[in-house]
């Protein structure tokens, strides 16, 4: 992530309910948020209907109309934005998986090796549930996974955002991935 001291300055004085301030902040962070969203959505299933632009806009709306946050820094903003993107993706998966969208009908693939929409949605929801459990045990590991998986940050960017060394981030990343693999395999 390119360092922009203007973002931190605006965050310290911003009121996202003020349209002019919100527009100025969005102008400064939009490209980075869009890059993060695009990178994340590349990992999603084929046929994913959520676009990077829509993900950024929905996450930003949640930030602007959610509870007031005492923004501490640019890194803090991106951590909260990652959480908002995660929630947008989870909500989209829940909507697609809702029974009312298809009654008792189930999609079946005739091509071996193609993951059905239902399976992909289940994976996102299972990951979300596992992250909730991880967060109860260690919130810093949850944040690390959130930044890596939902924001698509590199290990170096994640370490910088969390304010830890790259070595610690790598060690925590390995431990969190192992824990998640066990949790997801069990479910």
Describe the secondary structure blueprint for this structure.
Blueprint: H1 5-13, H2 19-41, H3 52-65, H4 74-97, H5 117-137, H6 139-150, H7 155-162, H8 166-186
Helix pairs in contact: 1-2, 2-3, 3-4, 4-5, 4-6, 5-6, 5-8, 6-7, 6-8, 7-8
Explained architecture:
- This protein is globular.
- About 7% of the residues have low confidence.
- It has one domain.
- The two termini are 35 Å apart.
- 71% of the residues lie in helices and 0% in strands.
- Helix 1 packs across helix 2, helix 5 runs antiparallel to helix 6 and helix 6 packs across helix 7.
- By secondary structure, the chain is mostly helical.
- It has eight helices and no strands.
